[in-house]
TrEMBL record:
Protein keywords: Signal
Record bears the keyword Ubl conjugation: no
Top-rank taxon: Bacteria
Pfam family, one: NamZ_N
Gene3D superfamilies associated with the record: 3.90.1150.140, Uncharacterised protein PF07075, DUF1343 (3.40.50.12170)
The organism of origin for this protein: Chitinophaga filiformis (Myxococcus filiformis)
Name listed for the protein in its UniProt record: DUF1343 domain-containing protein
Signal peptide extent: 1-20
The keyword Nucleus belongs to this UniProt entry's keyword annotation: no
Ranges where the Peptidoglycan beta-N-acetylmuramidase NamZ N-terminal domain occurs: 41-240
UniProt domain Peptidoglycan beta-N-acetylmuramidase NamZ C-terminal: residue ranges: 244-386
Length: 388
């Protein structure tokens, strides 16, 4: 599907070199260690919270930081649980620290969780999509911090999809959920540090509380810096191609199709057993991180979108691509069974589904997004920490 040409290879070489120069917030220890001195610390982290070649927790313990506990998000502290899988409290085998799960029924740290804590740290690699739940965990941690008068330090990391803003804005409050808590587009174009500032500044936290927030910024990063993630951010985003495709292909989670969970190419393929058998084929199986994937053990026929990171990023063209979803709907034999209710939560409205059913073109659909997108972009500019 993609042709690798010399300019793209040159671009990849240059941007990979730029990536090597990025210094994450976690690496800037001189900026935040003084804030931890003599304090009891809790961290909301997962496997992406690394400092050099070691986990942030291990690094801070070696620096004699008094860590009381670890809070974990969706997928757990080690990042190997399925999407949506219940993750309970546990003890970290390596350090002996208690792990308190903030995913499931107990999503928000309460007074009991924080009674032995003086300061909180958030350090999780995000991928810049509204329905990627780490920013929902960030919001609820900020609310907990504010309500219990605890300062919060966000150790910022680059957003691999931070070079554009696109998609429908979630305006229908009845569709707000953990996969979309605020009136932002599918691709918000902000780092978690910038988004945290927006949550505070726009008074979006529950009851308008204000979080005592410190953001330790990245260095040598702007919104067009290519950043190769050193650790996969969740089980089904194994590479940069998947991360670039995710804001568009995640919409297939709200359909009857498989998008490759349980294969080597999650979020990079889509298909269904009813499609023509001359198309690309794949069969989802139970795998770590996808124990019960949609259409498990059934051969699906469809399309393979993957390629080199540079080729996929070029194909995305700084947009949420609807062409694959529109094509999949047209090809699906039982139109009334294509969408499932979850689709509207991912889209952030009930309109997109109807637009596709009516046969509107991608250009017509995109035009309906423009007023809310323009307003969001204006608001976003107030909170940017890095050049565009």
């Amino acid at each position: 599907m993609y042709k690798i040409v010399i300019p793209l290879l040159l671009w990849l070489a240059v941007t990979t070199a730029a990536c090597a120069q990025v210094i994450t917030g976690a690496e800037r220890t001189s900026e935040y260690l003084p804030l931890l001195k003599g304090k009891r610390v809790a961290l909301l982290v997962n496997q992406t919270a690394i400092l050099g070649n070691t986990h942030l927790v291990d690094s801070l313990l070696k620096l004699h930081v008094n860590i009381q506990k670890i809070f974990s998000p969706e997928h757990g502290f080690r990042g190997n649980a399925d999407a949506g899988e219940k993750v309970g409290n546990a003890k970290d085998e390596r350090t002996g620290l208690p792990i308190v799960s903030l995913y499931g029924k107990h999503r928000k740290a309460d007074a009991a969780d924080l009674e032995d804590v003086d300061v909180l740290i958030f350090d999780i690699q995000d991928v810049g999509a509204r329905f990627y739940t780490y920013i929902s965990s960030l919001q609820e941690l900020m609310e907990s911090a504010a309500e219990n008068h605890k300062p919060l330090i966000v150790l910022d990391r680059p957003n691999p999809n931070g070079h554009y803003v696109d998609g429908p804005v979630l305006l229908d409050t009845s569709l707000r959920s953990f996969v979309g808590m605020q009136a932002i587009p599918i691709v918000h174009g902000m780092t978690v540090g910038e988004y945290a500032k927006m949550l505070n500044g726009e008074k979006w936290l529950k009851n308008g509380v204000d979080c005592d927030l410190t953001v330790v910024t990245c260095q040598h990063y702007d919104h067009h810096t290519y950043y190769q993630l050193p650790v996969k951010p969740s089980p089904n985003l194994p590479n940069m191609a998947a991360i670039y495709l995710y804001p568009s292909t995640c919409l297939f989670e709200g359909t009857a199709l498989s998008l490759g969970r349980g294969t080597d190419l999650p979020f990079q393929v889509f298909g269904h057993p009813s499609y023509p058998k001359n198309l690309y084929s794949f069969t989802p199986h139970s795998t770590p991180g996808a124990k019960e994937p949609p259409l498990k053990d059934r051969t699906c026929y469809g399309y393979n979108l993957t390629g080199t990171p540079a080729a996929v990023r070029k194909e995305m063209n700084d947009r949420v691509q609807l062409k694959w979803l529109i094509q999949a709907y047209r090809l699906f034999p039982e139109k009334d069974k294509f969408f499932i209710p979850f689709f509207n939560k991912l889209a952030g409205n009930t309109i997109l589904q109807q637009q596709i059913k009516k046969g509107l073109s991608e250009a017509e659909i995109r035009k309906s997004w423009e007023p809310a997108l323009t307003q969001f972009k204006t608001t976003r500019k107030k909170y940017l920490l890095y050049a565009e």
